[in-house]
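User: Please go through the entry that follows and flag anything odd:
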Amino acid sequence: MIIDFSDILTKQKELDKNIFAKHNKTYHETFNERKLALLVELGELSNEVRSFKYWSLKDRSEDEVVLEEYVDGIHFITSFCVHFGVQPIFTLKDNIPKLEKNAITIKFNKLFKTLCKFDISNKYKDNVKLIKKFYKKFLILGYGLGFNTEQILKAYDKKNTINHKRQENKY
């Protein structure tokens, strides 16, 4: 299946433009902050999914909560796509199966590892490769968590609207 998030890219570009203008910042100046924000969002998502919590019998959070955390990550990943001129269009296997707890934990560990290699001092082309790799793995995680493209796009739009309102209200 082909996943084309070009529409998300356009919306993210507009949100970033508003935020950067309001705070007098650039993509380059905020690289490390956005990377840390993405790491935090990945951690928040893993906390809601709870796959690593072998000591707990509690199930993962409700799908709506997990999906909201997931699209927070999509916002920051897509911001890096805008920054590096990456088109978020990916080819994935059809019918990605729902992942079991252990497989989810492994996916999270691989995502953290990939993201930690992403660095402002890297060559441009190295960062482009890493963000493409990360985005694709993140999409596979999302589908493995049971979400589909329509749900992700709808949740992104909802959160994007909230993020614009936050900027208007001095968030």
Observations:
- The two ends are 38 Å apart (CA to CA).
